[in-house]
Amino acid sequence: MAQSNQKTNMRKKAARTVPRGRVYVQSTFNNTIISITDASGGVLSWASAGNASFKGARKSTPYAAQVTLKNAVEKAKPYNLESVEVFVSGVGQGREAAVRALQGTGLTVTGIKDITPIAHNGARPKKPRRV
Questions:
Q1: End-to-end CA distance of the chain
Q2: Where are the domains of the chain?
Q3: How far is CA 100 from CA 1, 89, 126, in A?
Q4: Contact 23/102 with Cβ under 8 angstroms?
Q5: Ramachandran angles phi, psi of 78, nearest 5°
Q6: Contacts of 116 (CB under 8 A, 6+ apart)
Q7: CA 86, CA 112: separation in Å to the nearest integer?
Q8: Which pLDDT value is given to residue 105?
Q9: Over the stretch 22-80, which tens digit does the pLDDT of each residue have?
Q10: What is the pLDDT of residue 2?
Q11: Which fold, 20-114?
Q12: Which of 22, 39, 92, 104 is the 20 to 30 A CA-CA neighbour of 77?
């Protein structure tokens, strides 16, 4: 098996600028996950409270959501984001804290939308227990 010693032509990745993006905040009772995407849904950066060195019950706190959002915005700095739409999902404590922290990052918030799924009755409940 002969290996070629030829150097492959590798190009440096072109710096991509994304003026408008989306911020998805998924807040559960146990964690907060934040994704920053471009307009078509391609992920530019993401962060979670567990990734920001919060463990256990501290992952679901509003402070952890603030730190997580700042980490995600720092990772997205090379893309030169200017304005974002915010999509909030879930019922945890970090949802409002993340949106408030986004105001202080210098990004312009063009809209906030709640995309939490709501059940429409669903499956039939179990029959009552007779004792």
A1: 76
A2: 20-114
A3: 59, 15, 42
A4: yes
A5: -65, -15
A6: 88, 89, 90, 91
A7: 5
A8: 93
A9: 999 999 999 999 999 999 999 999 999 999 999 999 999 999 999 999 999 999 999 99
A10: 60
A11: Nucleotidyltransferase; domain 5 (3.30.420)
A12: 92
